[in-house]
Structures are given as C-alpha cells and as structure tokens.
Write a structure and sequence with these properties.
The protein is mainly α and 109 residues long. It has helices at 2-21, 25-34, 52-59, 65-74, 96-107; strands spanning 78-81, 84-87. The protein has 5 helices and 2 strands, in the order ααααββα. Strand 1 (78-81) and strand 2 (84-87) form a beta hairpin. Helix 2 (25-34) crosses helix 5 and helix 4 (65-74) crosses helix 5 (96-107). The protein binds heme C (HEC).
Amino acid sequence: MKILSTLLVAAGLMTASVAFAAVDADAAQALLKKSDCMKCHALDKKKDGPAYKEVAKKYKGKADAEDKMIKHVTQSPMIEIDGKKEEHKSVKTKDAAEIKNMVQWILSL
Ligand code: HEC
C-alpha cells in the first residue's frame, strides 16, 4: 500500500510540472494583439521590428533570455526605427505570469 501511494504522489507531481511548463499560445497571441505589438512585429517576417522567430533565434540557449525580454517589453527602452528614436511599446498588462507566458511563447517559436 505504501508503495502504491508513493507512486500516486509521484505521478501527480509529474502531471503538475507538465501543466506548469506548458505555454498558452492563445493567451500569448491575444496579449500581443491587445498591446498592438503586431503593428511592428510578425511571426516570421521583418516589419519595423524583427520577426519573433528571429528574436527566438537570437536568444536561443541564453540563460538570461526571459529576463532580458521581459525588461524589453515592460520598461520602454529607446529603439530606433528608420533613424528615428522612440520608446519601445510596453505590454498592456501588469500580470507578471501573463507577460512571462508571452515571452516564453516567443522563445518557443
Ligand atoms: C513601433 C514599432 C514597435 C512596436 C509597436 C513594438 N515593437 Fe518590439 N521592437 C521594435 C523594434 C524596432 C525592435 C528592435 C529593437 C532593437 O533591436 O534595438 C523591437 C524589438 C523587440 C523584441 C526583441 C528585443 C531584443 O532584446 O532583441 C521583442 C521581444 C519585442 N520587440 C516585443 C514586442 C512586444 C511584446 C510588443 C508589444 C507590447 C512590441 N514589441 C511592440 C518595434 C516595435
């Protein structure tokens, strides 16, 4: 009996960690749309900003990727478009989990 319950607990933990790691693609894209990000970005072609697939490639394997991107989309750093400096847009939410999900989705492309 003891072994069985240990197994059940282990299986439960595994399911929980899979659910935690899964990225919600729909929520990520909804937030990008809501925040007007798609005006300058597309998934796989360059507009005024780099394609999200290029961003994912640039950050592949970098441990600080998530932190850097979260800062980029929340702290309005200065960027340059056609020689003109402007503030980068921030996401329209204060929900850290929602922002993290969006960044993880971009990195997964
Ligand atoms: C006015 C056009 C514009 C809008 C709107 C815009 N971006 Fe960008 N974005 C850019 C440009 C240009 C760059 C490249 C900046 C650079 O490399 O200095 C960039 C870069 C990025 C990067 C890569 C950062 C890096 O460190 O390489 C991410 C991620 C990103 N944008 C996400 C977003 C998100 C999320 C939104 C919506 C909240 C958004 N962008 C809205 C123009 C835009």
